[in-house]
Amino acid sequence: MDFSLSEDQRILRDEIIRFARKELSPGVVERDEQHAFSKELWLKCGDMGLQGLPVPQDYGGAGLDSLSTAIALEALGYGSADGGLTFAICAHLLACVVPIWKHGTDEQKKRYLPQLCSGRMIAVNAMTESESGSDAFAMKTRAERDGDEFIINGTKTFSSNGPIANVAVLYARTDPSKGYLGGVTAFIVEEGTPGFSKGQVFKKMGLRTCPIGELVFENMRLPASAVLGTVGGGGPIFNQSMEWERACLVAAHLGTMERILEEAVEFARTRKSFGKPISQYQAVSHRIADMKVRLEAAKLLTYRTASRLESSKAVGFDAAITKLFVSESLVETALDAVRVFGGYGVMAEYGLERALRDSIAGTIYSGTNDMQRNIIARWLGL
């Protein structure tokens, strides 16, 4: 399959790279040290259309196909050194905006999508709980029917964008007897709803410019109109959102890997040791060669999976393989780059130690890599 970029895709890619280099990368060292989210930069990304890439233009999006969406996020990862902001955009878009676009009523789409796509609203995916990260069957958040309303109680944790979010896509158990498939319902919850509050804010190793925290729901009442999709249909909605995340979020990893590779090549050509460039030492050149191989393999997997999001029902298997391989390739590439740079690699100003810290989270979010291996094994009949 030929994945050569079309003229429109090349223009889109170049435009995003120029924007990200100029607007998003400056000041990232300081923002990372301060765990600071920039609302100003978020809104600039909204003006670029990054928070609504695949959403139809009628709802304020850019109307891109799924492969072009991945290419745009790849360009963002390449041009921007702010991995936390890139992740915040992806979490907002792929785990929240896409489900509302795919499963919302016309009223819900008109109410939320224009503001979400422009960045005027920030969304958080409220699924993970302290005792049910990858084990969604153990979810304790409950939504009990009371006439035309639902009463919801529970706490979500490790919620990316949680501390700054205006709207949440919330998953809660509505029928415990049916388990994850049939017993979980998705809701759209606005900030300021009585009973909805934000709890502890966490500090983390990487992706520091994307805030993360707890969301607390205490006797929160929602009308039936807040249901996203159908009652009991939350499981498939969440699964589809994870397919989009696993296929398109890792596209941003491709851009990061390519940027790191180029930096390593340039450094190896100019840095001298024992009278000659370190690129002439096989230990260095082979390490960089491995970085290139991982990038090209990861790109093929990502493009193939992203292109199937709109045309294939069997994307879960592809998405699991892609997420597993690309996220672990990013970790290996970041670590190899630090080794190429030596002492400079662990200095904050060069950005590689931050890229390495950021990369670790990729093996955990969107379903841990061990969970991806479980999915792959099940598809193989194991």
UniProtKB/TrEMBL annotation:
Its cofactor is FAD. It holds the Pfam family Acyl-CoA_dh_N. Residues 6-119 form the Acyl-CoA dehydrogenase/oxidase N-terminal domain. Residues 233-380 form the Acyl-CoA dehydrogenase/oxidase C-terminal domain. GO terms for molecular function: acyl-CoA dehydrogenase activity; flavin adenine dinucleotide binding. The keyword Oxidoreductase applies. Residues 126-220 form the Acyl-CoA oxidase/dehydrogenase middle domain. InterPro entries: Acyl-CoA_DH_CS (IPR006089), Acyl-CoA_Oxase/DH_mid-dom (IPR006091), Acyl-CoA_Oxase/DH_mid-dom_sf (IPR046373), AcylCo_DH-like_C (IPR036250), AcylCo_DH/oxidase_C (IPR009075), AcylCoA_DH/ox_N (IPR013786), AcylCoA_DH/ox_N_sf (IPR037069), AcylCoA_DH/oxidase_NM_dom_sf (IPR009100). Belongs to the acyl-CoA dehydrogenase family. PROSITE patterns: ACYL_COA_DH_1. This is Acyl-CoA dehydrogenase. The keyword Oxidoreductase applies. Keywords: FAD, Flavoprotein, Oxidoreductase. Its EC number is 1.3.99.-.
